[in-house]
Specification:
The complex is a heterodimer of chains A (172) and B (102).
Chain A lengths: L1 H21 L3 H21 L3 H26 L17 H27 L8 H4 L2 H11 L1 H22 L5
Helix pairs in contact in A: 1-2, 2-3, 6-7
Chain B lengths: L5 H21 L3 H26 L3 H31 L13
Helix pairs in contact in B: 1-2, 2-3
The chains are: A mainly alpha (172), B mainly alpha (102).
Chain lengths: 172, 102
Amino acid sequence: MDVLAFYAFAGIAVIASLLVVGQGNPMHSVMLLIVSFGALAGLYVVLDAPFTAVTQIIVYAGAIMVLFLFVVMLLNVPREEPAPAGVATLLGPTGMRIGAVLSVLLAGELLWALLRIGFGWASRGETAASVSSVALIGSGIFTRHAFAFEATSVLILVAMIGAVVLARREHS
Amino acid sequence: MVPLTVNHYLALSGVLFAIGTAGVFLRRNLITVLLSIEIMLNAVNLTFVAVGRYRGSVDGQIITFFVMTVAAAEAAVGLALIIALFRHRETLSPDAFTALKW
C-alpha cells in the first residue's frame, strides 16, 4: 500500500515538475506546481509526517502559490519573448542543450551521492510513532530550536518591510 | 514489490532538485525561475523529512518548518523585486537585467 502510494505520488510530482519547467505559460506553471506540492504533501503522509503535510498544503500550496498567482495576473505576461539577436549566447539552442546536459549530469551526481549516504542505515529506524507526534515537533521548536524560531520572526519582519519598500510605487 | 527504503525518497528528491536546476538554467522568464527555485527547496524538504523519518528523529520536520518560513520570505521579496524590475523594463526576460544601472 505504502509502496503504491509512493510511486503514484512520486510520479505525479515528477511529471508536474517537468511540466512546470517545460511549458511556456507562467499561469499553467503555477497551477502545475500546486499539483506537485499536493503530491509532496501525500508523500509526507506516507512518511508519517502529517503536520508537515498540512503545513505544506497551507503554506506552500495556499499562501506562497497565491502570491505567485497574484503577481502573474498583475504583470500579465503570458509568454516569453524570443531572445534578441545580440544576446543569444547562453540561451540559444546550443546553450539550451548545454543546460539540459548539465541538469542530467547533476541528477546523476545527486543520485550517486544521496544513494551512497542512504545505504548505511536504510534498514534502520521503524519508530514511526515517535516521529509523527505534533507535540514532539512543538517542544523541539520551542526548546532546542528556540533561537532559530525567534530569528525566523525577525527574518519575516525584514522580508515584509523589504517587500513593501521594493514594490512601492515611487513618487517623483 | 521492493519495500520502501530511504533511498527511494533520496532518489526522488535528487530528480526533483535536478528538474528545478534545469528550470533555472533553461527558462527565460523570471517568474518561472522563482518557481524552479521553489521546486528545489521542496526537494530538499523531502530529503529532510525522509532522513528524519528513517533515523527516528523529529528534527527533520522541524528544519522543514524553518525552510518553509524562509521560502515564504524569499518568495515575497523575490516577487517584489520582479514587480520593481518589471516597472523599469516592461519585460520579464533575465537578459534585460544584465546591468546594475537603469
